[in-house]
Structure prediction request, 395 residues.
Amino acid sequence: MPELIKLSLLYPCWAVVVVRVSALRSREQRPVWFALLMLALGMTMLQEPTERAARHLIGLPHIVDLVSSLMAVGVATTLLTFAARSYLAGGSFRIPFRRSHLISCGMTIGIMIVTFSIVTIQRIPMRDRFLPIPGTFTAHSIYWATYLTYMLIATGITTALLIIIMRMVHSRLVRIPVTLLAIASIAFMIFLGSRVVAVFTYSTNPIEYGTYISSVHTVGVALGCSIAAFTPIIQGFASWRKVNILYPMWKGLCTALPHIALYPPRSRLVDALLPHDSQLRLHRRLVEIRDGLLIMHGWASRVDIDHILAVIAEEEVPRDQTEAVVTACWLKVALAAHRAGLPHADHALDLARRGGSDRDSELDWLREVANVWSTPLVERCVSAVNARRPQEEKA
Prediction:
């Protein structure tokens, strides 16, 4: 069963590695990509055809065990790098994280290769899965001591950091891969424990048990890293979608107040197809809309607001949409007054106080307003208020 799981994950891992090769340009994405690459290489080496080919070409019976173990060291190191960088980016505390883990990884790999060569040259007796003979101390013992010590330390730190990060992140899209990687790291700690027992005993139970536990680690790392590798694309698409939802309201404000926009509004099609950073555009659009709201509320009088509330009272507006409808109505009324050249209200109302306390809540609020911006209810309300205004001005 574990072989079937690894085979089913092998092709998706290689597909993500190939498709997301652009992740190498990102400092945050690079560890995830390398973790997937080494996981895919390790699983490839464990396939029977690859094992036979490697043993035939190189002539060393346990070369596959060495390569798969080196790939495991690489996966553990890259996951530690990913966890540490994520923690440093969002944590309130600093940890002494430089390149010491990379030096430790290099020393571990060097010792493993040297001791493997000594074991092979001296033909030191061993058991299945390249395990040493219990009760003996040879280069083979140094190999396993170095490997297990490094892996336990690296995986332990990674697990602790990922659990902390899970509590810090609020985005569901980010939390899913972090949770999967945390589960994978916990499973790998259990797997390493089974290997420690296997090194010191002749029992085969830890080996079989560890094989199944390693499948949990493989699935967690494969899925977690795959999702993390595509997270920027998913986030970019989500930001692009939100930018387009806000477009009608944003364009109306920028047309009335050109100075609030860094770039003048373009047609909706051109705006949607602009090859810019969607997350940066979304942030800029939120700021420009908020600036426009703060300026335009001066063209909506108390009488306008009373008329808006009267019209809405006659309509069946869901309670959770009332504030958004009122905001959309007064803003459209204010834009119409601004276009007509009407003077600024003497006593401006504080109509722009609604909104969020941070970027996410502000975005949620503006999306509610944008969702009702072009609805028939808002159009009827604006038409009714604008129709009364000339009569009141003549009176």
Remarks:
- The chain is about 75% helix and 0% strand.
- The radius of gyration is 31 Å.
- Residues 205-256 form the longest helix (52 residues).
